Amino acid sequence: MIRLLLADDEAMIRAGVRAILATDPTLDVVAEAGDGREAVDLAISHHPDVALLDIRMPVLDGLAAAAEIRRAAPGTAVVMLTTFGEDDYIARAIDVGAGGFLLKSGDPRELIAGIHAVAEGAAYLSPKVAQRVITQLAAGRVSRGAVARDRVGALTEREREVLALLGAGLSNAEIAKRLHIVEGTVKAYVSAILTRLDVRNRVQAAIIAHEAGLVA
Predict the structure, then answer these.
(1) Are the C-beta atoms of residues 35 and 72 closer than 8 Å to each other?
(2) How far apart are CA 196 and CA 112, in angstroms?
(3) How far is Cα 34 from Cα 74, in angstroms, rounded to an integer?
(4) Which pLDDT does position 142 carry in this prediction?
(5) Do residues 28 and 4 make contact, with C-beta atoms less than 8 angstroms apart?
(6) pLDDT at position 126, please?
(7) Cα–chain-centroid distance for residue 37?
(8) What angle, 0 to 180 degrees and rounded to 10, lies between the N-to-C axes of helices 36-46 and 62-72?
């Protein structure tokens, strides 16, 4: 079972999302919050596998709540769920350590797929968000590519292999299968990669992999 925390200030939205999640028997909503501060408190007390957070909430917005949850409950992955697709929100969500970014206007199947991906250690962006990120990367590839290649150059050959697969969107289990190693070893490699690249999460590492040309 994947244990979930659901946070949105609109009760009807929470009910709708909960109904979608109920279609997957492996998902269990263990706590609900109506604002960002309550979401942080519940994450600390319940230790869910994934926190699904709306961006615009009272008391503490979703981005600030995500940052606190990642610090106070590092075992809880964060997925941002919003009606807003502005570039600023996407960038800030990545910066605070969110592993997924989904739009409320997306297909309900994206919601379930995104939660499973993030719970398994992968990153997940809805297709519309991914396209915006790719566009941003393409616009800055020339100026940032050299910097990214220098950063990646500090990794071992095996770490670069893992980073390339991570950048392609594979989960830890999928990387382990591809490289014929155990999943625990992949987790160790990913942790070392994040430390060496000085990034907070897999999404930021994946962006560097793309900028460095490790991923087509």
Answers:
(1) no
(2) 32
(3) 21
(4) 46
(5) yes
(6) 82
(7) 20
(8) 20
- Rounded Cα–Cα distance for residues 163 and 166 (Å): 5
What are the tokens at 92?
A: 């800030």
Q: What is the mean pLDDT of residues 115-138?
A: 78
d(CA 122, CA 114): 9
**With contact defined as beta carbons under 8 Å apart, do 196 and 155 qualify?**
yes
Q: Which residue has the tokens 């999302």?
A: 17
pLDDT digits (tens, 9 = 90+) for 142-158: 456 777 888 898 899 99
- Which amino acid does the sequence have at 102? L
pTM above 0.90, yes or no: no
Which residue do the tokens 């060496």 mark?
A: 196
Q: Which residues contact 67 (CB under 8 A, 6 or more apart)?
A: 96, 97
The DSSP output letter for 55 is: S
179, amino acid identity: L
Going 200 to 201 to 205 to 206, the CA torsion angle's sign is negative
Helix ranges, the chain (H): 11-21, 36-46, 62-72, 87-95, 108-119, 127-152, 157-167, 172-179, 183-197, 202-211
Determine how many CB atoms are found less than 10 A away from the CB of residue 178: 14
> What is the 3 state secondary structure string of 199-214?
CCCHHHHHHHHHHCCC
d(CA 90, CA 156): 30
Predicted confidence (pLDDT) at residue 3 exceeds the cutoff of 90: yes
Q: What is the largest CA-CA distance in the chain?
A: 50
- 104: tokens are 């409320």
